[in-house]
Structure formats: C-alpha cells, structure tokens
Specification:
This protein is an alpha/beta fold. The chain has 2 domains: 116 residues, 2-Layer Sandwich (Zincin-like), CATH 3.30.2010; 118 residues, Metalloproteases ("zincins"), catalytic domain (Zincin-like, 2-Layer Sandwich). Helices cover 44% and strands 13% of the residues. The protein is built from 9 helices and 6 strands. The strands form 2 sheets. A 3-stranded mixed β-sheet has the order 1-3-2, covered by helices on one side. It has a 3-stranded mixed β-sheet with strand order 4-6-5, covered by helices on one side. Helix 1 packs parallel to helix 5, helix 2 packs across helix 3 and helix 7 packs across helix 9. It is elongated. The structure holds zinc ion. Zinc ion (ZN) binds next to helix 7.
C-alpha cells in the first residue's frame, strides 16, 4: 500500500528505476543502430509512450505507469517500441510476459489510484446522489448476470454526458458511469445496464486492437434481463426526450 501512496503524492520515482530505464533503452538502442538515446518517464493520463527520431538519435517519453516494472518486462517494452519505430511490426506487439504484467494485480494496484486522479472528469467515489455503484455491482454479481471483476474501481463522472453514458479503462480496471443516470427520474435498471456493458469489456480483458462491440459482445449484452427497456431509455436520453430536472 505504501507504494500507491508514494506514487499518488507526486511524480517522484525511485531514481534506481530511472537508471534501469535508461540502461534498458540505451543498450537496446545500440543494438538497433542508434548513437544517441534519451529516455524519461512522463505522467500521461493514459498508458502511452511517445518518441522522436532524428537520424540515429531517438528520444522517448515512457508512461510512468511502468515505473515499477521488472527489468525483463521493461526490456520487452523497449523492444516492442523499437520494433515499431523500425516499422518491423505494424502495431505495438506486446510479449506474453509484458501482457501478463499489464494484467497483474501488481500493475493495477500500483497505478489505478493515479489514473483516477489524472482523470479529471471522474468522482473519487462509487456513491452517487441516488445510486451506489457498489450496490449495483453486487446485484449484478449476486444474480449471476456478470462474473466478479477483479480490482474493479467504480466511479460516477462529474459532468454528465448524454451520448457517452459509460466509460471504462480495461487496463486500469476503472469503470465510470455518466452522472446523468444518477437521477431519481432514471429507473435504476438503466445505470445497471450501462455498468453491465462496461463490466463485459473488463471481462474481455486487454484487446489487441480487436473490435469491441462484436456480434458476440452484443449477444452477451442482451443477456441482461432489461436490455431492451434500457436501450430504449438511453435512446430517449440521447435525443433529449427525458426531462431530468
Ligand atoms: Zn462498449
């Protein structure tokens, strides 16, 4: 737990790990034919990394969510980036070891709170004005509608969006529901259905650029007992045909 607090307080990181990052990227850079390699951690909200290349010089900004990765995991990540820069692979191909780390409790528990803090539109709590998302989640699990989701963190958004009523980060195990649905005029099954939809994404795990709303996904979505009414409600909401005042 101390690690989470430590990261939550600011951008300070153990300098040992920064040395490791530098050594990893420099060594691999040499193998790929680069003369100069510059690399730093950056506190992006999303898990992303950027680079600039000029001739045989390259500089990286690496997501600080990797700030505690083991050397071999960091090595796999460096290799994935170099492969991509050299265009030997079309996307970013993660090794099974790297993927396993990104899906581990270690990774999620260390980074989730930071991710939520960086997500400016998320409240810090599952407890809304009218509905408690933890109760809704419990209901879905207890009724067998959805299987329990590990390390999931539930939130309402601060400002409500009519069109985008649910949001999730599969990587960070974070789900957020539009605060517009946290309203006594909205039947409780509507936000339950949206939460159900997002939990299905979490169940699917990290994708390799696959489509998210496949026919198979849609079929599972319709296993929610009130999907039809919910869809109807969400359409009305999007069309501003619901008075929420
Ligand atoms: Zn979706």
């Amino acid at each position: 737990m101390t690690d989470i607090t430590y990261l939550g307080e600011g951008s300070a990181r153990p300098s040992e790990h920064e040395h490791l990052l530098e050594a990893t990227f420099k060594t691999m850079g040499t193998a790929y034919g680069y003369d100069q390699v510059k690399v730093d951690y950056a506190s992006y909200k999303e898990f992303k990394s950027t680079w600039q290349r000029l001739g045989r010089t390259v500089s990286f900004e690496i997501s600080d969510y990797l700030g505690a990765a083991r050397p071999e995991v960091l090595g796999d990540f460096a290799q994935a980036l170099y492969e991509r820069i050299e265009k030997r692979t079309p996307g970013c191909v993660y090794s099974p070891r790297l993927k396993a780390y990104l899906e581990s409790d270690d990774f999620v528990l260390r980074n989730q709170a930071t991710y939520v803090r960086r997500s400016r539109n998320l409240t810090r709590t599952a407890l809304g004005r009218h509905f408690d998302l933890r109760e809704t989640y419990r209901r879905l699990v207890d009724s067998g509608t959805v299987s329990p989701s590990k390390n999931v963190s539930l939130h309402w958004t601060k400002s409500g969006n009519r069109m985008r009523v649910g949001y999730c980060s599969v990587l960070m195990r974070v789900v957020a529901i539009s605060s517009l649905l946290d309203n006594e005029k909205v039947p409780d099954f509507v936000h339950e259905y949206v939460l159900y939809h997002e939990l299905l994404h979490l169940e699917d795990g990290l994708s390799d650029g696959r489509r998210h709303h496949t026919p198979e996904f849609k079929a599972r979505e319709r296993q929610h007992p009130r999907w039809k009414e919910s869809e109807e409600w969400l359409r009305k909401l999007a069309a501003r045909k619901v008075d929420l005042r």
